């Protein structure tokens, strides 16, 4: 079993219904991969993602999602960071709900934590 921790850098995000159920969907994916451990999903702003992207990927620009795998495929210890402003823009661009886009980004990040590459994900 994997414990999933949702973190919000802004209380406004935390009260939004769009975030409900993300931990359950991500938990199902991790269970299907027989993963154990813990994973955090942090919902932040563009500045946070830009700072992390610069520090860890040497890219001085914001991004929609970043993933950090601190374990292995079976003993997950990882973090996923999602830019809420980017998710809002992309939801509008793709003509989907914010909840759908947040879930898509959470799943994308989770698959990276599990070790999948963009090529393996068909991205």
Automatic annotation (TrEMBL):
Gene3D superfamilies: Metalloproteases ('zincins'), catalytic domain (3.40.390.30). One of its GO terms (biological process) is rRNA processing. Its main location: cytoplasm. One of its GO terms (cellular component) is cytoplasm. Keywords: Cytoplasm, Endonuclease, Hydrolase, Metal-binding, Nuclease, Ribosome biogenesis, rRNA processing, Zinc. It comes from the Bacteria. Its cofactor is Zn(2+). InterPro entries: MetalPrtase_cat_dom_sf_prd, YbeY. It is found in: Cytoplasm. Zn(2+) binds at residues 108, 112, 118. GO terms for molecular function: metalloendopeptidase activity; RNA endonuclease activity; zinc ion binding. Its EC number is 3.1.-.-. The keyword DNA repair does not apply. Binds 1 zinc ion. Belongs to the endoribonuclease YbeY family. Single strand-specific metallo-endoribonuclease involved in late-stage 70S ribosome quality control and in maturation of the 3' terminus of the 16S rRNA. PANTHER family: ENDORIBONUCLEASE YBEY, CHLOROPLASTIC (PTHR46986:SF1). This is Endoribonuclease YbeY. It comes from candidate division WOR-1 bacterium RIFOXYB2_FULL_36_35. The lineage of its organism: Bacteria, Bacillati, Saganbacteria.
